[in-house]
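#onboarding

Welcome to the new folks! Below is a worked example of what a typical request in this channel looks like: someone posts a single protein sequence, and someone else replies with the predicted structure as tokens. Don't worry about understanding the tokens yet, we'll cover that in week two.

Example request:
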Amino acid sequence: MQTEIKQNIKNIQDKINLACTSISKDPNEITLIAVSKKKDILMIENALKNGVSNFGENYAQELQEKALNIKADNIIWHYIGPIQSNKVKIIAKNADWVHTLDREKIIRKLDSECKQIKKTINACIQINISSEETKSGCSPDELIDLSKLIKSMENINLQGIMALPKITKDSNERKEMMESIKNLSNKLQDYFPEAKCISLGTTLDFEDAIVHGSTMVRIGEHIFGKRL
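Example response:
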């Protein structure tokens, strides 16, 4: 398994490099987030040894358990799941990044929890780009109002946007959604130029995502193997 994860990371990095070359982008501008939900600590430590330092978790209590048990100065935890109000305290304590802010109540609670522990957390606003009822995220029309709210918070650093486009085999539809996300990022940067991050792209579409402006890709299966 150790050798397999090492090779998988190399394969992903090679694909990231190729996608960047196609648009004359520096591969160092892309952050690879290894989605480690339901993966054991040994697998995460193996990925750490092979150059991955950013890990994404979907469940607050699983994040907490792993953050407590993996002692590494270079590890960066990203919370990438839907946020329940009663889990904000756990997320504030254990995450370095939150990708899924999408409503005022959670934003205010996260800022308050971070303030209590004298911590500043990085954040992205999640946008429901395809208006799917089963997915979290604000509507595109809410983006600027939410971004202004976050900028008024003392303990949250607004870094950009995150999206989970509808899964489709239609490459044109996929590209249209990614172009829409890129346009929303540009709109956000008109107000807040430093909020440049675009958290977009998973195992299925990360190369297209990079071509369409993504700066953070979230990949699990192609690093750790299929979930059982």
